[in-house]
């Protein structure tokens, strides 16, 4: 049997070929199929509604773009596509790519990223925690609505878990919430949310 190495892409090649395809992101030059499902999109959509209401009530100059890629490090071929991104509109004048394409390259342009956990949960709980912290994103939420993450991350017995990661220095402090618990966010202190509120009804 012969081994055929996976073709790697540069960020520019990825943007040209897959920049407007929400199914894919890039990690170290490797194309990642994020395999979105209907229930996954249901959770993301409901959560975006709650976040949007909290932003509006707080009168912040922030918004949730319909589509957005994050290029966290100039020296690596990585372009992340979080399920939800909250951007600070006042910072976008400094984003060199934003006028031509929805790509963010500066961490201070981002207030919050959210990943809704799917089959590649290891990336959400490990690598993205490091990447987003080093990029300086103040909050990162991991929404494991099916409780499929590893026991090392969500405990035992495994159950639906909502993890709020808040930046302290260059690392995140993490706080986990289960069903029925009110979720607290330093970024959005007026947020009214429980994990129950965003679960699929089917």
TrEMBL record:
Natural source organism: Halomicronema hongdechloris C2206
CDD domains membership: DUF820-like
Official protein name in the record: Putative restriction endonuclease domain-containing protein
Coiled coil stretches, renumbered: none
Start and end residues of each Putative restriction endonuclease domain: 12-195
């Amino acid at each position: 049997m012969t081994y055929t190495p996976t073709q790697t892409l540069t960020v520019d090649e990825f943007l040209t070929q897959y920049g407007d395809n929400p199914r894919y992101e890039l990690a170290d030059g490797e194309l990642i199929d994020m395999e979105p499902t209907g229930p996954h999109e249901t959770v993301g959509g409901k959560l975006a509604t709650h976040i949007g209401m909290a932003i509006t009530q707080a009168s912040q100059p922030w918004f949730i773009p319909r589509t957005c890629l994050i290029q966290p490090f100039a020296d690596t071929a990585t372009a992340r596509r979080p399920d939800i991104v909250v951007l600070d509109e006042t910072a976008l004048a400094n984003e060199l790519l934003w006028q031509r394409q929805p790509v963010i390259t500066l961490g201070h342009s981002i207030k919050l990223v959210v990943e809704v956990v799917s089959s590649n949960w290891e990336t959400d709980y490990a690598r993205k925690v490091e990447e987003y912290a080093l990029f300086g994103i103040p909050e990162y939420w991991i929404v494991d609505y099916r409780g499929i993450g590893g026991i090392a991350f969500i405990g035992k017995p495994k159950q639906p878990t909502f993890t709020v990661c808040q930046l302290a220095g260059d690392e995140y402090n993490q706080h986990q919430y289960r069903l029925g618990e009110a979720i607290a966010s330093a970024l959005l202190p007026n947020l009214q949310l429980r994990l129950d509120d965003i679960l699929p009804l089917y």
